[in-house]
């Protein structure tokens, strides 16, 4: 069955909003019409779907077959994880599985894949020669997240008594295309440029954290407004001798891009910020974002990667203190959707249906409306699907370059290196690079009390030490080497913490309790 050249496309079932596809009808047309000898693809079977961004008839028109039955397919493609009963035995699957870091919530899926002798390729693990992920939706998350927040900002300002052009914006999914959504933002910008914003809310300052694709996408939308970018050190200048010192309307908004050097400072006053040192020894640094940046921000657009070993961008205590001092912060768009992470009080995800909650710092309370005191927060974890057409086109442009290899090759070791490395399971067996997964799962089920008997430490335990690992543990598979060293020395380990990078640029961090027995 593997390598037979027949490709199946799943009907997405993970979320009602998921309308993206791995291959569009135009991609399928090129793959089919180029011939099997060139592409390695003989047939494409598409499961019917009434919510997919591209109608079934468009796939039929280019020669695809529409059927719920994918039993002929050697390779089956999706975007998100399929339901367990959709996993057929002895096939190859490709989708975002979220299993290679031993994520608890997806271990039943991995168990099903192993039991059915399936081969699993994970899009997240397909990286190019430069170490960058080839298949990702970061810019679309940034674009959709920014548009959605501008819409919410208009609603929030209205509840505070101010009418603004932002109020006319719709959510990203309400536009038929990204171009139409951008045109709507441009119209808002034209109104700001001609009519201005109420002085009572100005200066309106958007702070963007990070410099990756998510931040680039968010800034792309922001730049459609009349704007000026300000260096972090010059933010205080926007406020002069105080806010609201004039009745004149303001005809632009302000942007500020901050990176880690603007968020922390070395505890030793004689030393300056050093990125390499910060990543190696974050304990040597103190947070300063709440002092240097947050007091001047109207909106924080959070696009940065964060691990718990680093200082938070903004803690609950910090925002409570800022609120008492009259901080102008109106809202936070946490596009990273890092719950309880760099922005501590963003403690829940939100949905496309209901993208905001309101946090009231003085009472430390959460509300599902925009009408009271506090800060509006957004943390939607499925933003790119709001631009399903463009996101799918972008994704398929890349996937179609190597889907033929996946469809026509039965032995994963004969695939190009970037695809071989992305194979987590082959024929129901974990591949060598991912043999750490069950070891981490086993560790995760251990209770530290296993080393105790009736409240006393088991005397077989010679010693225990906490080992911290930091680096490219998963994308370069260094976690395997670390566990090999521990076990070769006769040790066992208990996984205490595991913070994993969200990109190949970011490092991961793990803490292991290592024990050696007599």
TrEMBL record:
Residues 184-377 form the Alanine dehydrogenase/pyridine nucleotide transhydrogenase NAD(H)-binding domain. GO terms for biological process: lysine biosynthetic process via aminoadipic acid. One of its GO terms (cellular component) is cytoplasm. It comes from the Eukaryota. Keywords: NAD, Oxidoreductase. Residues 8-144 form the Alanine dehydrogenase/pyridine nucleotide transhydrogenase N-terminal domain. One of its GO terms (molecular function) is saccharopine dehydrogenase activity. SUPFAM superfamilies: Formate/glycerate dehydrogenase catalytic domain-like. This is Alanine dehydrogenase/pyridine nucleotide transhydrogenase N-terminal domain-containing protein. It comes from Gossypium schwendimanii (Cotton).
